[in-house]
Amino acid sequence: MLKYIDEKNSNLARDEDTGEVIEATTVIIPIGSKIQTPEQQKAAREWREQQEKRLMRRKLQDELGYFYFVMKQHEFGRLSAESAARLIYLCTYLNYHNEFMLTERTKMKKVDLKNVLGLSTGTTHSFWKDVEGTYILDCGKDGLKLISPYIVRGRLGKTEDLYKKFYLEGVRCIYEATATSKHRYLGYIFQLLPYVNTEHNVICKNPDEKDIEQVEPLLIDDICDILGYDKTQRSRFINIYRQLTFEYHGHEEWFVTFVTPQDYSELTKAYVNPHVFFSGSDYHKVETLGLFTKKTPLKPKRSKKIKCGSTNSE
After folding, report:
1. Domain contains 86
2. Which residues are CB-neighbours of 79 under 8 A, at least 6 positions away?
3. Is residue 312 part of a domain?
4. Which positions ≥6 away from 188 have C-beta within 8 Å?
5. Which has fewest Cβ within 10 Å: 108, 122, 197, 220?
């Protein structure tokens, strides 16, 4: 209990239990009001923030579907760009025990890779040489297992901020819509993961910046330098991505959108479609989100061997 040292002239009070002297003031409050200490107020704010984050995560999952995690700083540097794209696709078949599954009960075997990835025998062999022992382990009759610490299916807890979410539906849709000869262009973007801004999905120099006005985009020449791509072929580079589209919820969308000031192609900035991967607070905030959707009508497509957007059992 607190008692003023001098009730008329002082704002100092003594805690009669501990003898501690502290600053205090008298406040008149209605009967029935709830009083919180500063510590309780802080705890309440933190609780509300956690609730808001939890609700946003649920909303994102409802809209974007199931996902797995890839560490933000992982560049897939040891892999070719083609193999990076194929690995990202293959991981949509992971269960929560790091096992690759064809169905809920059927484990994926090495012999299944050719059909799952839609590759020739030789290309499948090249892919396996790239990932064997580093990303995937062949356990024989027990199937294929993921062994990379950089890719996770399941909860991460406090380390979640170190990862980006790859959405199963978006990944499958873009991969299945892309010709084998163009897989490396998907892989290029996955290799640029450390440069993709968390909140705005723009490829940039400061990926953790939340204020879009402060984001410093990597220009196309910068991106070409990082990838080892001939800068004099920047226009060809952009044109290839303008051909990479996929069907998503009844719309045809681009994998990457480019924003170019008029007559200044060297200042072009690149944004990645958040339906494929995104870890910000609200993907609706991604600048140019509307520009990912093509305005032209969709052409009828033949059905694929794997239903676009299907997922392994949750």
Report:
1. yes
2. 87, 130, 131, 135, 187
3. no
4. 81, 227, 229
5. 122
User: Which candidate, 92, 45, 42, 49, places its Cα nearest to that of 70?
Assistant: 92
- Domain limits at 105? 65-292
- Residue 168 within any structural domain of the chain: yes
43 vs 175: CA distance, rounded Å: 45
What pLDDT sits at residue 7? 60
Which residue carries 């892309």 as its tokens?
178
CB atoms within 10 A of CB 183: 24
- Residue 93 placed within a domain: yes
Q: Of all helices (H) and strands (E), which one includes residue 190?
A: helix 183-191
Give the C-alpha separation, 170 to 178, whole Å: 12
Residue 198: the pLDDT is: 92
Nearest residue to 290 via CA among 265, 273, 270: 273
Rounded Cα–Cα distance for residues 225 and 219 (Å) = 10
Specify the pTM: 0.76
pLDDT in tens, 214-257: 999 999 999 999 999 999 998 899 999 999 999 998 889 999 99
Structure tokens at 236: 């060809």
What pLDDT, on a 0 to 100 scale, did the predictor assign at position 195?
96
Tens digits of residue pLDDT in 87-102: 999 999 999 999 999 9
* Two structure tokens written together for 269: 């900035």
Query: What total of structural domains would you count in the chain?
Result: 1
Long-range contacts of the stretch 96-102 (C-beta < 8 A, 24+): 96/153, 96/154, 98/145, 98/146, 98/147, 98/153, 99/143, 99/144, 99/145, 99/146, 100/136, 100/143, 100/144, 100/145, 100/146, 101/143, 101/312, 101/313
How many Cα atoms are found within 13 Å in the side-chain-facing hemisphere of 261? 5
